[in-house]
Amino acid sequence: MRSLQSEIEQRGQHIFELVDKHPDSLFSKAGFYQRLMTLSMRDEQLKHQLFRFVDVLPSLRTSGEIIRHLQEYFAEAHDSQKVSEFLRAGVRLARVVPWISGPILRWNVSEMARQFIAGRNSNDVMRTLRKRRTQKIGFTVDLLGEAVVSETETDEYAARYLDLLEGLARETKEWTDPLGKNSELFPVVNLSVKISALYSQINPAEPADAIAHLAPKLRPLLRRARNVGAFINFDMESYAHKNITLELFKTVFTEEEFRDWPHAGIVTQAYLRDSEADLRDLIEWGRARGKRFAVRLVKGAYWDYETAKSRQNGWDCPVYLQKPESDANFETLTRLLLENEAIVTSAFGSHNVRSIAHAQAFAEELGIDRSRFEFQLLYGMAGPIKRALVDMGYRVREYCPVGELLPGMSYLVRRLLENTSNEGFLRAKFSENVPAAELLRDPREILHRSRNGVLPPSTPTINMTTTTPKTQAGAPYENAPLTNFALPENQEKMRAALREQRKLFGRKIPLTINGEKVWTDKLFSSVNPTQPDQIVGCAAEADIPEAERAVAAARAAFEKWRRTSFEERCQLLERAAQILERRRFELSALEVFEVGKPWTQADADIAEAIDFCTFYARLMRQLGRSRLTQNVPGEESYQHYWPRGVALVIAPWNFPMAILCGMVSAALVTGNTVIMKPSEQSVIIGAMLMEIYEEAGVPPGVLNFLNGKGSVIGAYMVDHKDVDLIAFTGSREVGLWIWESAGKTREGQRELKRVICEMGGKNAMIVDSDADLDEAIVDSIYSAFGFQGQKCSALSRLIVLEENYDRVMERLLGAAASVRVGNPEEPGIVVGPVIDEAAYRRILDYIDIGKREATLAFQAKNIPPQGYFIPPTIFTGVKPNMRIAREEIFGPVLSVIKVRDLDEAIEVANGTDYALTGGFFSRSPANIERVKAQLEAGNVYINRPCTGAIVGRHPFGGFKMSGGGSKAGGEDYLLNFLIPRVVTENVTRHGLAPEKTREYRDEFLWPPKR
Ligand SMILES: Cc1cc2nc3c(=O)[nH]c(=O)nc-3n(C[C@H](O)[C@H](O)[C@H](O)COP(=O)(O)OP(=O)(O)OC[C@H]3O[C@@H](n4cnc5c(N)ncnc54)[C@H](O)[C@@H]3O)c2cc1C
Questions:
Q1: 30 C-alpha to ligand 1 centroid (Å)
Q2: Which atom of ligand 1 is the closest one to the Cα of 398?
């Protein structure tokens, strides 16, 4: 008996022989597509430009637009030696005769798309399907479309699926199974469904909500499929949707109505590390259900996305990082499927001859007939392999996407990426002619060699850290990872934390002055804005005497704290970061109750607080050492920093832990002593920071916690002669008052007061005429309505070019109507309550003003009757001089301003008192460069939301009336808290000078540390 490996090799060789009779035209050297592929494979940078151009092309309306983009994308490439004559000629031609080359380009790209898209609609696709029928190839049809952003769009999608199903059933009524054997397992009509197209508000943290919305949309389709004898397959999309897709599949097909229906299938992605566990679980489920079901095994189409996303968020990467690992796992899962053939019908979705040959050989070994499983391949790809498999007597089904070019763009770009991937089988076989023996090697053997150091790893190592980041100088800075709420264990931890926090409602919090707990005769209650009769906690309220005691304590503690080594101070911050991490869920849950933050945003707030601690500790290690200014013989000059003195930190409630912790930690690590005054609305969270620093070992008096009215104790301390520094984040009104008041020198004052002042914004996002609306709509909604619009970075003015105004508005209003408003204890809620009654009334007043000034285009309905809920609201017809376009509202209210062109858009965007954040959605490289240069904002975001700054990555802060120009979470932030000092010593004695002077020396501390 031959070994499995030699059986695979023999079968593989046979497939190759058949394939070589008809080489794949996709990889030949002629034509537009082939040239594009050749160029892409030659130059990685050019490939990105090419694919970006292909991506924007269908949305361009005129020849002039097409040519402008062509020139913008390839202006650099045009001068490059690398670029081929083909591209150079294209750009030249385009300049001379745009009216010819524009349509030619569009036609070429349409033709290219037609290679991968089987038809524009159900009628159109029939031509392809009939042709395949004569080749004995079956089909599964998939609907391409734009990303759905609203429930109107999902309804349209569901209707299109039904329509497609009806059409296919009608047209193929007389068709029979190509193999004529075991045909009951393989209905002719086979529809592939993407669940993300059926519910626009899927939140990975809330599977139950997703299933509750998806199941009713699916049932009519399933019923109809069953009636017409069709098969329904659930495609698998990104990892975030995986658990929901599996849960939905198991839930629906366990229902009485569908539990005995065998024609349901789902996809397993072998590139996922947890795919084997999921598949075993599915098989168990299938056995318990007692009816056959199907699994399409694939490697997975979102590898680049998953690796990038997990790196951005600091998550464990869910996919294998080396290609042979995915290949090997594909084979493991192939065996698992075939071994359970009694309950599960397998479809192997691959173009890789090794993967295919392995499935064939293993099935043969188990004695499974060829007609009991199938191979599935994509339309427009690997034609010769399909033909070979048919010739060998196997069952072959083609995956046929149906749709228009514009919505099909992301699919097309995925295919282009796949075909040009360095790792891909098709490129290796058909473009690079890698020998068959190499292509048929056992992936395990390749891995084994790789592990023994013979082969380098196929991908760069990805950081998989999930613990508190390192802060040591030299090591790259790592942000604290966000909690991945797609994982059920994290959902459970959060729910448990919410339950625990509820039990603590009503707790009482004292002031902390000089390490002592101080009670006063006044208690301030902090309530849950979702349900204002619930008291989250009560805090003692300070008055002038307590403020005076706190200033005195901080002043007294300063002398010792300033002489504490910076290393000790850095370690204090790092211990605080560890405690924050340990109490992460508890603190996030408290934010949900005290300020109404949705889960993910509460978690991001705690993550940011951790980042501030670790980032500032790291910065202080760089700044803390005394540094030689210049190397001159005979003289040493060292620059170093002293703390300023007593810092008053006044923080807002909207990032109740992060902003407070950021300002406090910066002041502490630089050697200042601190009086922290959190916002009254988030005082319990502020008290938690005090607890954390106490546990971390902050000495008495170095950090003091005062709760009280800003207008009373805040004002008193701002004017106090012993307060040297004020770090403030909050409203413009208070900020400007502090700025002015701190400018007056008081009797006995030692220092000129330093004010670090962050205020509001009236942030604008411009949507260009070529913007990708799938992204622009979702990100605008999130930026405007996320956390009820109560972020200083939130979007409040959407500036839309008139050219695509109607399309933007149609999708924007639909998307706004689909946003979930409600109790933020539910993880999928996007819009919760605003912070308190005063905010509630003020925002409603602004809505009234908007109704008088402009047109109310949208206002959400079904708002919870209790709590401070404001319906997300959109005004159109807004002019730049209207109050709703100029004044900060700090609530879920969006003004849409229509403009003629980009000139006007920039003028409007810059025409406010503020300059905090700003955004631009565009696919024009030249327009993007222009906006990068001209938009007046401290943080400019291109093609992404304008909120969500990350410490170290996006140093945050604005100018004009948005702030004093300091950047929290940036390299130079700590300098605001420090006084620079230089010590110069003449070290020459009788003309004798040391030859070398050290670049750094120890701190100037007296008495020196031993
Ligand atoms: C009929 C059909 C239906 C499909 N349906 C789905 C679906 O529902 N969901 C879905 O996600 N995909 C789906 N795919 C796409 C599939 O997942 C693969 O992307 C594609 O088929 C390429 O895999 P291959 O075996 O053909 O080629 P190969 O060239 O052998 O494999 C390429 C694949 O290897 C993996 N890979 C690449 N680089 C690395 C690396 N460095 N480390 C680890 N792994 C790596 C990736 O998954 C990549 O797509 C489907 C494919 C087919 C043919």
A1: 26
A2: 1
Cα–Cα dist 704/673, whole Å: 8
Q: In what order do the strands lie in the sheet with 893-899?
A: 855-859, 873-876, 893-899, 795-801, 763-767, 917-921, 939-942
d(CA 543, ligand 1 centre) in Å? 66
Q: Which of 20, 135, 187 is nearest to 377 (CA)?
A: 135
Q: Does the Cβ of 888 fall within 6 Å of ligand 1?
A: no
793 lines ligand 1 (CB under 6 A): no
Q: How many residues does the chain have?
A: 1010
Residue 424 beta carbon below 6 angstroms from any ligand 1 atom: yes
The CB of 194 under 6 Å from ligand 1? The reply is: no
326 lines ligand 1 (CB under 6 A): yes
Can you state the angle between helices 599-623 and 658-669, rounded to 10 degrees? 10
How far lies 1006's CA from each of 85, 234, 559, in Å? 71, 71, 11
Instruction: Report d(CA 848, CA 48) in Å as an integer.
Output: 48
Query: How far is Cα 760 from Cα 771, in angstroms, rounded to an integer?
Result: 27
Distance CA 36, CA 52 (A): 12
Q: Which residues contact 851 (CB under 8 A, 6 or more apart)?
A: none
- With vertex at residue 356, the alpha carbon angle to CA 351 and CA 358, rounded to the nearest 5 degrees, is 150
Phi, psi of 753, deg, nearest 5: -65, 135
Mutate to test the pocket of ligand 1, among 231, 299, 417 (most ligand atoms within 8 A of CB): 299
Q: Supply 714's token pair.
A: 């805040």
* Ligand 1 pocket check for 458: Cβ under 6 Å: yes
Catalytic residue among 237, 758, 825, 888: 758
pLDDT at 162: 96
Which one-letter amino acid corresponds to residue 835?
I
**Is 758 part of the annotated catalytic residue set?**
yes
Does 400 qualify as catalytic in the annotation? no
CA nearest 529: which of 864, 266, 877? 864
Atom of ligand 1 nearest to the CA of 319: 43
CA distance 425 to 561: 63
- What gap in Å lies between CA 486 and CA 274, rounded to an integer? 14
**Do residues 492 and 485 make contact, with C-beta atoms less than 8 angstroms apart?**
no
**Ligand 1 in reach of 74 Cβ (< 6 A):** no
Active-site choice (317, 613, 661, 792): 792
CA-to-CA distance for 923 and 906, rounded, in angstroms? 16
pLDDT tens-digit readout, 593-627: 999 999 999 999 999 999 999 999 999 999 999 99
- Tell me the per-residue pLDDT of 88-108, one tens digit each, with 9 for 90 and over: 666 666 666 555 667 777 777
CB atoms within 10 A of CB 460: 9
Q: Following DSSP, what letter does each residue of 45-104 receive, concatenated? A: HHHHHHHHHHHHGGG--SHHHHHHHHHHHHHHHHH-TTS-HHHHHHHHHHHH-HHHHHHH
CA–centroid distance, 335 to ligand 1, in Å, is: 18
DSSP string, 601-628: HHHHHHHHHHHHHHHHHHHHHHHSSEEE
What are the respective helix, strand and coil percentages of the chain, to the nearest 5? 50, 15, 35
List pLDDT tens digits, range 438-481.
999 999 999 988 766 544 444 433 333 333 444 555 678 999 99
* All residues at 6 or more sequence positions from 834 whose CB lies less than 8 Å from its CB, including other chains: 529, 596, 788, 790, 840, 843, 868, 869, 870, 891, 892
pLDDT averaged over consecutive 10-residue blocks of the chain (1010 residues)?
A: 88 94 67 75 82 85 83 66 58 62 76 85 91 97 89 94 95 94 97 96 96 97 97 97 97 98 98 98 98 98 95 94 97 98 98 97 97 96 94 97 81 83 86 91 90 48 39 77 96 98 98 98 96 98 98 98 97 98 98 97 98 98 95 94 98 98 98 98 98 98 97 97 98 96 95 96 97 96 98 98 96 97 96 98 98 98 95 98 97 98 98 98 97 98 97 97 94 97 94 89 83
